[in-house]
Design brief:
Elements lengths: L1 E5 L5 E4 L4 H12 L7 E4 L19 E5 L8 H13 L3 H13 L3 H14 L25 H22 L6 H20 L24 E2 L14 E2 L5 H7 L3 E4 L3 H14 L8 H9 L4 E4 L4
Parallel strand pairs: 1-4
Antiparallel strand pairs: 1-2, 3-4, 5-6, 7-8
Helix pairs in contact: 3-4, 6-8, 6-9, 8-9
Organism: Mustela putorius furo
InterPro entries: CIDE-N_dom, DFF40, DFF40_C, His-Me_finger_sf
Keywords: Apoptosis, Cytoplasm, Hydrolase, Nuclease, Nucleus
């Protein structure tokens, strides 16, 4: 006996037969599909069932009955349908997931359902406080848009880097402090002109000026010593309040370390300049731009 289902139908029927053709014919009758052009394949991997391997298939196996022109690639096909449902989730899917979660006792299933609900409940498209009030809970009233707040969030990080660079003046030799402070002031003016690179977190910014997709998805770029994140971490802080808060734990890290390498090297260059102009633009890029910055999940 086999469990049969049609490609786009949730119904499963039990069918017993003495041959592949016998099972196919009975399945078509029960699922109301035409026999002509139809065929059977294994649910797991999409392997088409033939008369030769019919008897090697274990009893109770799940089969998919395909009509002419239809294809099945096994679990991959179900995953694609699942992902399509997540892309534009409707209220029915959300309600069904909530109901399942309320009845579920197994911790792993609870975790999977909770993560699913977290994802499909995101109001990513909304941008203003009026469109998504819960997203703005806990934020000052001056923030009216999601992009505006996230720009501010990025600007705050860059400002903190500038303060660190400025505070290092006390470590520089007395003779070089004035020149060091002058260069830091020049960098500060450059940052103000660039609006502290707040566009890195702004999904409305032009490509090349932001670190996210136009929808607001950010991908972890991995630790400083690797080219990519092995865990494929991603987040959309525009989706809901929880994602916004979690995003604040992601680090905007320096590939070449700021405290141990870049700032001390800048100080050394100023001290040893011997009347020459220090190439402050080089250090500016290393300290404040995506040339030497990468967005990293806290676990990486």
């Amino acid at each position: 006996t086999f469990k049969l289902r049609a490609l786009h139908g949730p119904q499963k029927v039990g069918v017993a037969g003495s041959s592949c053709q016998d099972v196919l014919r009975k399945g078509c009758l029960l699922l109301q599909l035409p026999v002509a052009g139809s065929r059977l394949c294994l649910y797991e991997d999409g392997t088409e069932l033939t008369a030769d391997d019919f008897w090697s298939v274990p009893d109770g196996s799940e089969l998919v009955l395909l009509s002419a022109g239809q294809t099945w690639q096994g679990y991959v096909s179900d995953l694609r349908r699942l992902l399509s449902a997540f892309h534009k989730p409707h209220e029915g899917l959300i309600q069904a997931a909530r109901q399942l979660l309320s009845d579920e006792q197994a911790p792993l299933r609870q975790k999977l359902l909770a993560d699913l609900l977290h994802t499909v409940s995101e109001n990513i498209a909304a941008e203003t406080r009026a469109e998504d009030p819960p997203w703005f809970e806990g934020l000052e009233s001056r923030f009216r848009t999601k992009s505006g707040y996230l720009r501010y969030s990025c600007e705050s990080r860059i400002r903190s880097y500038l303060r660190e660079v400025s505070s290092y003046a006390s470590v520089v030799s007395v003779e070089a402090q004035e020149e060091y402070s002058r260069i830091v002031a020049v960098m500060g003016r450059e940052l103000r002109a660039a609006q502290y690179h707040g566009t890195y977190f702004d999904r409305g910014a032009k490509a090349g000026h932001r670190l996210c997709t136009p929808e607001g998805w950010f991908c972890c770029q991995g630790p400083f010593d690797v080219d990519a994140c092995a865990s494929k971490h991603s987040i959309n802080p525009y989706g809901n309040r929880e994602s916004r808060v979690l995003f604040s734990t992601w680090n905007l890290d320096h590939i070449i370390e700021k405290k141990r390498t870049v700032v001390p090297t800048l100080a050394e260059a100023v001290t040893a300049r011997d009347g020459r102009e220090v190439a402050w633009e080089y250090f500016y890029d290393l300290l404040f731009t995506s040339e030497n910055l990468k967005l990293v999940h806290i676990a990486c």
